[in-house]
Specification:
The chain is mainly alpha-helical and about 120 residues long. The chain has three helices and two strands. It has one domain. About 35% of the residues lie in helices and about 10% in strands. A two-stranded antiparallel sheet has the order 1-2.
């Protein structure tokens, strides 16, 4: 990848900033794997993961994105390195991790109506 000021690195960084901003507006600031919550001060540790691993596939509805903390994101990509080294079968999101199912707003109406 080129690193000059007119090369593909600059274009990729601009594209990445664009879909990251969109994803942070669409989704709650929670890691989709470990359920770690983020606030503005540690938001830099929350990454946008492309589910199909195609960084050019950026639909406006965010259907190809999930927010992962840097640790879960590294784990997701390490599966592909292990496949290259050891020949294991790897499929996107084929993992022992369960996706987050907790909804912090599930009983919000009941809590607000409580007097």
């Amino acid at each position: 990848m080129s690193t000059d000021k007119y090369g593909s690195s600059a274009q990729y960084k601009k594209q990445e900033a664009s879909y990251r901003d969109q994803a942070l507006k669409l989704f709650p600031w929670i890691c989709g794997r470990c359920i770690r919550e983020f606030v503005y001060s540690n938001l830099r540790e929350l990454t946008v993961h492309h589910i199909d691993h195609d960084h050019n596939n950026n639909p406006k509805d965010g259907s190809n994105w999930e927010l992962l903390c840097i640790y879960c994101h590294d784990h997701e990509h390490s599966k592909y390195l292990e496949h290259d080294r050891y020949g294991s079968e790897v499929k996107p999101q084929d993992d022992q991790h369960k996706n987050a199912t907790f909804n912090p707003f599930a009983d919000l109406k009941k809590l607000l109506d409580k007097d």
